[in-house]
C-alpha cells in the first residue's frame, strides 16, 4: 500500500506540565497523516473540497489508539500512515508512531473514514458514497513518500 511518513518534534505545547505528550496530539497528527497520505498519493483533497460543492472530504467515523511508551518534550516521532483496508464507502487508515530511528511503535492508531458528500436535497445531511476506483488505485501502489514539511 501507498505509505506516507512524516516527522514531528514534540514541542512544549504538545505536553502536560511533566513534559509528557498530551495524548490528544496523536489524534491531531493522525488526521494530518491521513490528509497528507491522500495528497501525496495524488488526490487533491483540498482542491476537490473547493471545486465540488457537495464533496465533504473523508469524515472520521471511528478511531482508536494504543499506547506503548510515552513521548517527551524534545523527542522526534516518525508517523507512518497507510490504508489498511477498503470497504465500499469507507476505508481504514493505520498509523504508527515510533521514536527517533527505533522502528518499534510507541503508539498506534486506526481511523475509519467515509467518502463523504452532502445530500443534494438536504445539504446538512452527510452521506457516504463509494470510494472512487482511482483513489483506491492511488492508495494501493507500493510506494513510500516522506511528506515532512
Write the layout of secondary structure elements.
Layout: E1 3-9, H1 24-41, H2 45-51, E2 55-57, E3 60-67, E4 76-86, E5 90-99, E6 105-118, E7 126-129, H3 133-140, E8 144-146
Parallel strand pairs: 1-8
Antiparallel strand pairs: 1-4, 2-6, 3-6, 4-5, 5-6, 6-7
The percentage helix is 10-25%
Shape: globular
Number of strands: 8
- The average pLDDT value, as a whole number, equals 95
The CATH topology turns out to be Thiol Ester Dehydrase, Chain A
Let me know the CATH homologous superfamily.
Hotdog Thioesterase
SS class: alpha+beta
Strand content: 35-45%
Helix-strand pattern, N to C? Answer: EHHEEEEEEHE
Low-confidence stretches: none
The biggest beta sheet is recorded as: 8 strands, mixed
Helical segment tally?
3
Q: What is the name of the CATH class?
A: Alpha Beta
Q: How large is the radius of gyration?
A: 16 Å
Looking at the overall shape, the CATH architecture is Roll
- N-end to C-end Cα span: 22 Å
Number of domains: 1
What does this structure look like?
It is globular, with a radius of gyration of 16 Å. Helices cover 22% and strands 40% of the residues. Strand 5 and strand 6 form a beta hairpin. It has a single domain, classed as Hotdog Thioesterase (Thiol Ester Dehydrase, Chain A, Roll), CATH 3.10.129.10. It is of the alpha+beta class and 149 residues long. The chain contains three helices and eight strands; from the N terminus they run βααββββββαβ.
Features:
149 residues; alpha+beta; Thiol Ester Dehydrase, Chain A; 8-stranded mixed β-sheet; 3 helices; globular
Amino acid at each position: 500500500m501507498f505509505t506516507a511518513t512524516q516527522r514531528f518534534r514534540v514541542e512544549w505545547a504538545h505536553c502536560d506540565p511533566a513534559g509528557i505528550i498530551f495524548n490528544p496530539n496523536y489524534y491531531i497528527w493522525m488526521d494530518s497523516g491521513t490528509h497528507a497520505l491522500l495528497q501525496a498519493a495524488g488526490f487533491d483533497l483540498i482542491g476537490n473540497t473547493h471545486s465540488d460543492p457537495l464533496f465533504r472530504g473523508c469524515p472520521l467515523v471511528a478511531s482508536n489508539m494504543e499506547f506503548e511508551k510515552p513521548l517527551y518534550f524534545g523527542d522526534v516521532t516518525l508517523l507512518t500512515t497507510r490504508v489498511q483496508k477498503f470497504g465500499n464507502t469507507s476505508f481504514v487508515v493505520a498509523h504508527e508512531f515510533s521514536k527517533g530511528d527505533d522502528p518499534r511503535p510507541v503508539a498506534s492508531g486506526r481511523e475509519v473514514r467515509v467518502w463523504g458528500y452532502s445530500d443534494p436535497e438536504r445539504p446538512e445531511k452527510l452521506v457516504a458514497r463509494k470510494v472512487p476506483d482511482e483513489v483506491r488505485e492511488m492508495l494501493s501502489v507500493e510506494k513510500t513518500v516522506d511528506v515532512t514539511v
